[in-house]
Design goal:
The complex is a heterodimer of chains A (188) and B (202). Chain A is an alpha+beta fold. Helices cover 56% and strands 18% of the residues of chain A. Chain A has a five-stranded antiparallel sheet with strand order 1-2-3-4-5. In chain A, helix 2 (27-45) crosses helix 5 (168-187) and helix 3 (53-78) packs antiparallel against helix 4 (81-110). By secondary structure, chain B is of the alpha+beta class. Chain B has helices spanning 10-26, 29-34, 38-66, 173-180, 182-198; strands at residues 72-74, 89-93, 104-107, 116-125, 131-136, 155-156, 160-168. A seven-stranded antiparallel sheet of chain B has the order 1-2-7-3-4-5-6. Classes of the chains: A alpha+beta (188), B alpha+beta (202). Chain A binds chain B through residues 12-14, 18, 20-23, 28-29, 31-33, 36, 52, 55-56, 58-59, 62-63, 65-66, 69-70, 72-73, 76, 80-82, 85, 88-89, 91-93, 95-96, 99, 112, 164, and chain B through 27-28, 31-32, 34-35, 39, 42-43, 46-47, 49-50, 53-54, 56-58, 60-61, 63-64, 67, 69, 200-202.
Chain lengths: 188, 202
Amino acid sequence: VVTMVKKIVEKWMVDESKPVVVEKYDKVAVKNGIDDLLRKTFTTKYNIDETFRTRDTRLAICSIACVFSAYACLYDFLYPFPDSKIVLGICSLSYFSITGLLYVWEWFVEKGTFFEGELNGGKIKVSSFIPRYSGEYTITGECPESSESVSYTKCISTWLDETGKILPDKIEKEADNLYSKLFKAKAQ
Amino acid sequence: SSGINAEWPLRPGFAGCAWLFSFGNSVDMFDELRRMDKRQVIYQFLNFAMIVSSALMLWKGLFVVTHCESPIVVVLSGSMQPAYYRGDLLFLTNQPEPVRVGDVVVFRIRGRNIPIVHRVLKVHEKDDGYVKFLTKGDNNNIDDRGLYVDGQLWLERGDIIGRVKGYLPYVGMMTILMNDKPNLKYALLGLLALFVLIKREQ
């Protein structure tokens, strides 16, 4: 069964060399596409080890919320309404508190981080942001320990052509730029 | 109903899916999904679970707030016209306040599944707190004794699910339609689920 699943997964995974084309007017797709390619460049070209702390924390918070909700539904199913009132009340409140916590965390801690990694013992964090009705992509790279940080804004047309294809060489140039700026001080 | 058979919601549903797939291919929509790594896939499923959970927790939370096991019901018959028509949505609460004559209540008759919404006609109270009610639909000629169980002449507090506190006209027609044609319900829910699973957010 495991080999069968592996085969299906292989067939499903898209060929790495296939160009990445996104719907250029869909801000979320564009951001995700650029982020993913940058991330790939960091891990393959510079061999930065990706750490997953931020992403795993988010997954954990969501899972805990779902556990509360599942427990409430199960309890209500086994002991129908008037008996389950207290459990339903507590789980409902907890669920919405945890969801609220998720938003707060997203807003204050995660802040658009799409890549976190470690290189030679130094941590690096890269985040990006596209405002609602604009094509201006702001990228921020920082090394939390040394408080080195670089941030600049470019229009997404720097990396996309008219069909929505993300140009890998331009992305690589961007990654080089970030890398050199962040690690310039370290090298010295 | 003439001309409409059980398959009709499925054919437009399939046509819609076929259109979705062809549109998806033209912008390589599925490539974006195929490029997702393990954590991103897990997040898509968690996202879907959270949307379902939000709806469920809102609904169950409503139980607690209203003390009622069925806080939103749909009127199925015309027995309360002109106050409530078939297809109206009713909002119920079941606070421990006493039920009075003139209140519109939703009650369940022992042994029957479907609750009934009618108005309270008579109330009898004893000193020890025991109360019994007689109900009648506004649009009916006679009271509900014909509807109660054989030999039952009154309703008790435990039979009452809740009192009507508010209503929305026509909205419940959607529920009636989906219950009459379950294929439509499954098709709609399936499409919604698909949409949530496929759409990537930030």
